[in-house]
Write a structure and sequence with these properties.
Elements: E1 3-5, E2 8-12, E3 18-24, E4 27-32, E5 37-41, E6 47-52, E7 57-62, E8 68-72, E9 77-82, E10 85-91, E11 100-105, E12 111-115, E13 130-135, E14 142-149, E15 152-157, E16 162-167, E17 172-178, E18 184-192, E19 198-203, E20 209-213, E21 218-222, E22 228-233, E23 238-245, E24 251-258, H1 261-266, E25 270-277
Parallel strand pairs: 1-22
Antiparallel strand pairs: 2-25, 3-4, 4-5, 5-6, 7-8, 8-9, 9-10, 11-12, 12-13, 13-14, 15-16, 16-17, 17-18, 19-20, 20-21, 21-22, 23-24, 24-25
């Protein structure tokens, strides 16, 4: 039986569309993709603007020394935040067939970067597939980590060193083995999720994957094989992205948008962060 949980409002404000949440250094970090700004928030909900990113910030991550990496969508590039300014870290346009989006940076500083695979904002067709990029810690080496994903989006790493990737337009979550050189192999289906539109992902200590069900206005927890154990209904808000953090590692941070995906496309949406105590 699926356990149903309830969320509470954590942060509201003049945000347009929030993405890329990460818990780091005792704070929640997130991007306002359409607002062009990266923020961080204390556990009490005090928000600070970190930096502006003119070409739409999305995925966030941190190098081993704590330097913030930001996926700049329209640039198809990663930037480092250094001395209060942005420095180009890596150009991934040679791999990305569309705007880049979510990103995972591992403990050694390797970044796995997804992309749309097509002109998302001006093309009604949603059949193009995309390659997942792998960027070295120094940003000098950009390669293909995995090919032929259907809109690679939210990405998390399991405790047994596997990479889990949401394929939003494929209604599927895939999982890969991570090799010693950080390349990916042995692709398998983690879960088939018809009608869900899996967007952002989070992962808990038991390797349960929390999924923003973008087409269903809810967040769900899925185990390897596809069993849904928990859900959080956030309707009439849209489920966009999530991560787990908090001082004790037991809070699910849910990024939501309102009132519709059409409003997101029109850049007239509003957004907030909701929380669930696990």
């Amino acid at each position: 039986m699926t356990e149903r949980l309830t969320s509470e409002i954590f942060i509201e404000g003049s945000y347009v569309f929030l993405e890329g949440p990460r818990w780091h250094d005792s704070q929640l970090w997130f991007s306002d993709m359409l607002g062009g700004t990266v923020y961080r928030a204390s556990p009490e909900g005090q928000v600070v603007a970190v930096t502006d990113v003119p070409k739409r910030p999305s995925g966030l991550g941190f190098l081993p020394d704590g330097t913030l990496l930001i996926a700049s969508m329209q640039d198809r590039a990663l930037y480092r935040l250094e001395d209060g300014g942005l420095t180009l870290h890596a150009d991934v346009s040679g791999v990305a067939g569309g705007d880049i989006n979510d990103m995972l940076v591992d403990a050694e500083g390797y970044a796995y970067v997804g992309n749309f695979g097509f002109d998302f904002w001006n093309t009604p067709e949603r059949t193009e597939h995309a390659d997942l990029a792998l960027v070295s810690p120094d940003g000098r080496d950009v390669s293909v980590a995995a090919r032929d994903l259907h809109f690679p989006n939210g990405t998390v790493m399991t405790g047994d060193n596997r990479l889990v990737v949401a394929e939003t337009h494929g209604d599927r979550i895939s999982v890969f083995d991570i090799n010693d050189d950080h390349s990916l192999s042995n692709r398998k289906v983690f879960a088939e999720v018809p009608g869900v539109g899996p967007d952002g992902l989070g992962i808990d200590a038991d390797d349960g994957v929390w999924v923003a069900a973008a087409d269903q206005d809810r967040f769900i927890r899925i185990e390897d094989g596809g069993r849904i154990t928990h859900e959080v209904d956030v309707s009439p808000h849209l489920a966009v992205a999530c991560t787990i953090g908090g001082p004790h590692g037991d809070i699910l941070y849910c990024l939501t948008a309102h009132p519709s995906w059409q409003a997101v496309y029109d850049q007239t949406s509003t957004a907030r962060v909701e929380t669930v105590l696990l």
